[in-house]
């Protein structure tokens, strides 16, 4: 086992040295739940590299998908070889950048999936929790795109910014929490029929588990739709 830490309190990333592409932490498998909404992304944009668990998994399992990763800290990028992250090529690019600035400057509809997993030692990076940042992310998504955000254990503190970003839009939020972690995972989707989706959810999760071994079928009973997301949520 090889782990990444910012301090001695929390594990930021974990890797099996004998199976470096395997998703060991349950929250990373939960974030792959975007496949329930968008099963064939052409471009995945990730915020936060860490030990590269999600990058490696997506790089291995989606050979036709382009992956862009934003990481603020050069020290984290410098560890990529220790965590067996592939070198940049035509499909993969890791960029040292402030995601809040980068996302603000991107054109509309360039990503099919955006994965937000940018953390400091104290939890989610504050500059990645503003309404302006969430607006920029949603602007960057393609029409059938999905934004998946690791809210850690602080969904209430994030509610005002998210509610403001979604004001007068038709974005919906599905969320779940894994049984063995503190992490709340939110999925932002557009034009999703809640009734149809829930009736198909378990069957779709089973089929995905047969292909990817993500244990999504265990997770689907916890999926909840945020019907009225207000600043007081």
Automatic annotation (TrEMBL):
Q: Does the keyword DNA damage apply?
A: no
Keyword terms: Polyamine biosynthesis, Transferase
The terms under GO molecular function for this entry are: spermidine synthase activity
Query: Single Gene Ontology BP term?
Result: polyamine biosynthetic process
EC numbers, comma separated: 2.5.1.16
Q: Which PROSITE patterns match?
A: PABS_2
Enzyme class label = transferase
Which InterPro entries does this entry report, sorted A to Z?
PABS, SAM-dependent_MTases_sf
Active site positions: 117
What's the domain of life for this entry? Bacteria
Q: Does the keyword Transferase apply?
A: yes
Instruction: List, for all copies, the residue spans of the domain called PABS.
Output: 1-150
Family recorded in the similarity comment: Belongs to the spermidine/spermine synthase family.
Which protein are we looking at?
Spermidine synthase
Question: Where does this protein come from, organism-wise?
Answer: Herminiimonas arsenicoxydans
